Amino acid sequence: MENYWLETAKKLQAMAQSGLAYCTNQYDIERYEELRDISADMMSKYTDTEITMVKSLFCNETGYQTPKVDIRGVIFKDNKILMVREKLDGAWALPGGWADIGLTPGEVAVKEVKEEAGLEVKPIRLLAVFDKKCHPHPPSPYHVYKIFILCEIVGGSLRTGMETSDARFFGSHELPELSVERNTESQIKIMFEYLENPNKEAMLD
Known about the structure:
CATH class of the largest domain: Alpha Beta
Order of helices and strands: HHHEEEEHEEEHE
Structural class: alpha+beta
Strand content: 25-35%
Mean pLDDT: 91
Distance between the termini: 22 Å
CATH superfamily of the largest domain: Nucleoside Triphosphate Pyrophosphohydrolase
Shape: elongated
CATH topology of the largest domain: Nucleoside Triphosphate Pyrophosphohydrolase
Number of domains: 2
CATH architecture of the largest domain: Alpha-Beta Complex
Low-confidence stretches: none
Number of strands: 8
Helix content: 25-40%
């Protein structure tokens, strides 16, 4: 039920933002602003985030609202997968982050792996596009698409970055504590399926 109200709040926020982007009637603008405030209040309560923080995230955005895109690089070596330890929560994740304007998904994966783990890689193929709401992540104020891209090491050496405190390779049966906001155990297990079966088709949702 909690997730239902959070999803409802996100839909209300999207409707309000779109209405404010296209509407010209002052009375309708006021109604959309009130709708946006209601959605921000709901998000604050269901994500345990200060209302001022929620409003700073959402009320300054303009235009038609679309999902955010998170891109993760998937790198294997000696049958183990590369993970980085996030400074923010002390847990582990595949290297990656928000998509950047002006960069392709593959270029984002290359950039994030270099910045977070020190390795130079090249993108090989798309493994999966997941909708965050379909996986056991904690509640989030954003609607997020997650893109997983298989990459091959071409240079560099393991090192930490500004947002990471460690970088290592882990086997499928020795996974560390995961940063479930960024990736779940079931998603990591799916990535290992591509190591076992390189011909496995890309997954959706």
